[in-house]
Amino acid sequence: MSIAKMIALHPDVAGDINDALATAARHAMFCDLMCSSCADACVAEEMDMRQCIRTCLDCADVCAATARMAVRRTGQNVEALRAMLEHCAAVCMICAEECGGHDHEHCQLCATMCRECAEDCRAAIPTVQ
Fold first, then answer.
1. How far apart are CA 46 and CA 4, in angstroms?
2. What percent of the chain has pLDDT over 90?
3. Any stretches that span the bilayer, and where are they (predicted)?
4. CB of 112 within 8 A of CB of 99?
5. Residue 14 burial class via C-beta count within 10 angstroms: exposed 0-12, middle 13-18, buried 19 and up
6. In sequence order, which ranges of the chain are alpha helices (DSSP H)?
7. Domain count, the chain
8. What is the three-class DSSP state of 12?
9. Which among 13, 46, 67, 94 could bridge 28 via Cys, Cβ 3.0 to 4.6 Å?
10. Does 38 reside within a domain?
11. pLDDT (tens digit, 9 = 90+) per residue, 114-127?
């Protein structure tokens, strides 16, 4: 099932969805899960990964909230949604930098997902009206 299809079915949307925003919501949802998984893998590492764990969990929370806000179509809160997309992009880049500094494959994969999510959030900002 596609989140874009679900958004398109909303009575206030009438099939005319914002593709960039739907993509950002989808990637924020994936990024939430990737960061949560990375944090869990970091717990199992033998070295001190506290900062990476904290950064991943913070990013997961921001991504989850961003995804939820991005799929809502009843009413509008344009300023809040734009601010959340900007914040999500910034937090994702912080997480990408932290994870990118570790050699663990799970951290590298998380860093890649965070960069992609940040890019999609930035692309969606000007489309929110």
1. 41
2. 81
3. none
4. no
5. exposed
6. 3-8, 19-44, 50-71, 78-100, 105-124
7. 1
8. coil
9. 67
10. yes
11. 999 999 999 999 99
